[in-house]
């Protein structure tokens, strides 16, 4: 069974081919021009997807050595995400499936992130707990079995990746903020500034990162920091390390608390922020201490990619689960619909 997976939920245009659970190709085009605007511009993102979708799909098929007529199904994300971006991949995927007379499978973007850990040779066993953390989402999810999920908690305000981007803007270091802060933090002192850790005692599985971001803003004002000025590199490194430590402390603590409370052995992380080196280091250390099995995708599969979409499409088609060609984009799609 050969599946084409298409991902266009935000600013990556990606397509992948998977056969019998084995990945044959994964092609991704990045929209780097968004850095000029300090964030993703939805209209520009959807226009870029329109330009890129055909060559990216062609590249994925060519790398896999597969002709489109040999596909057994086409999968594409339909939410959550930017509505214009979603519509490009969704419309292309449905049109291709219709033209080929093949099944179409609509895929939940967050479900795809959870399934990114199923692309690895070593996979978590059901039920497993996933921290899905990105620029648009931060949530704790129990994967009870294939396609059945329980959302334990989510962010009340900023997602972790969003907080990274906003703090990077305050510091004047550029976009996207996550990789830049991660890199600068390696040279900084994580104890230089004691930013708050919002653990939300009333709701231990939910998150809030706006307070850490606001604390950074007040601290920068207090010290007279000029984001466009000539600041000491060590100062910026210390600020990055201190902010990152606060965010990572919260993410690690909540994931491990949920794992202990629910007596779940296998824990996983997915989404763009799962590429953060400090998060990966801390989780590896804590999981070993607590005798948990930790699963984190390779860097290629942390950010949005067609491979994770193809994996969900493959598993669904194996079970005879297909979608109507009348499926529409749902920018606010909630994973709870799979509960």
Task: Tell me the count of domains.
Answer: 2
According to DSSP, the number of beta strands is 10
Strand order, main sheet: write it out: 3-2-1-4-5
Structural class: alpha/beta
Output mean pLDDT.
Answer: 95
Through-space gap between termini: 27 Å
The second-level CATH architecture of the largest domain is: 2-Layer Sandwich
Strand percentage lies at 15-25%
Which spans of ≥5 residues are poorly predicted at pLDDT below 50?
A: none
CATH superfamily of the largest domain: ATPase, nucleotide binding domain
Describe the structure.
There is one protein chain. It is globular, with a radius of gyration of 20 Å. The protein is built from nine helices and ten strands. The strands form two sheets. Strands 3-2-1-4-5 form a five-stranded mixed β-sheet, with helices on both faces. A five-stranded mixed β-sheet has the order 8-7-6-9-10. The model has no long low-confidence stretch (mean pLDDT 95). Helix 4 (160-171) runs parallel beside helix 6 and helix 7 runs parallel beside helix 8. Helices cover 40% and strands 19% of the residues. The protein is α/β, with parallel strands linked by helices. Strand 1 and strand 2 (12-19) form a beta hairpin. It has helices at 42-64, 83-100, 109-115, 160-171, 177-185, 210-222, 233-261, 277-289, 306-318; strands spanning 2-7, 12-19, 22-30, 73-79, 104-108, 128-133, 138-145, 148-154, 266-270, 293-295. The protein has two domains: 2-115 and 301-338, ATPase, nucleotide binding domain (Nucleotidyltransferase, domain 5, 2-Layer Sandwich); 123-296, Nucleotidyltransferase, domain 5, CATH 3.30.420.
């Amino acid at each position: 069974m050969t599946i084409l997976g298409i991902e266009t939920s935000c600013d990556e245009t990606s397509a992948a081919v998977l056969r019998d659970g084995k990945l044959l190709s994964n092609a991704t085009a990045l929209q780097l021009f968004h850095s000029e605007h300090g964030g993703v511009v939805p209209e520009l993102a959807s226009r870029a997807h329109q330009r890129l979708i055909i060559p990216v799909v062609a590249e994925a098929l060519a790398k896999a050595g597969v002709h489109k007529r040999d596909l057994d199904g086409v999968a594409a994300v339909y939410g959550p995400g930017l509505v214009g971006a979603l519509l490009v991949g969704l419309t292309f995927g449905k049109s291709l499936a219709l033209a080929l007379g093949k099944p179409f499978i609509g895929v939940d973007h967050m479900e795809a992130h959870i399934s990114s850990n199923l692309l690895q040779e070593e996979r978590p066993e059901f039920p497993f707990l996933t921290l899905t953390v990105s620029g648009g989402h931060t949530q704790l999810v129990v994967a009870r079995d294939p396609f059945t999920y329980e959302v334990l908690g989510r962010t009340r305000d900023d997602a972790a990746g969003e907080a990274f981007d906003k703090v990077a803007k305050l510091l004047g270091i550029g976009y996207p903020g996550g990789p830049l802060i991660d890199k600068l933090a390696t040279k900084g002192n994580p104890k230089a500034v004691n930013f708050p850790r919002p653990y939300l005692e009333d709701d231990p599985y939910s998150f809030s990162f706006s307070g850490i971001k606001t604390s950074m803003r007040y601290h920068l004002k207090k010290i007279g920091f000029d984001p466009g000025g000539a600041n000491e590199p060590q100062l910026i490194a210390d600020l990055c390390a201190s902010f990152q430590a606060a965010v990572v402390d919260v993410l690690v603590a909540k994931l491990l608390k949920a794992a202990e409370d629910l007596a779940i052995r296998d824990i996983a992380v997915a989404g763009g922020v799962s590429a953060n080196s400090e998060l990966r280091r801390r989780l590896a250390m804590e999981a070993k201490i607590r005798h948990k099995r930790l699963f984190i995708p390779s860097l290629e599969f942390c950010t949005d990619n067609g491979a994770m979409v193809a994996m969900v499409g493959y598993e669904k088609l194996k079970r005879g689960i297909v979608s109507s060609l009348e499926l529409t984009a749902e920018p606010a799609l909630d994973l709870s619909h799979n509960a």
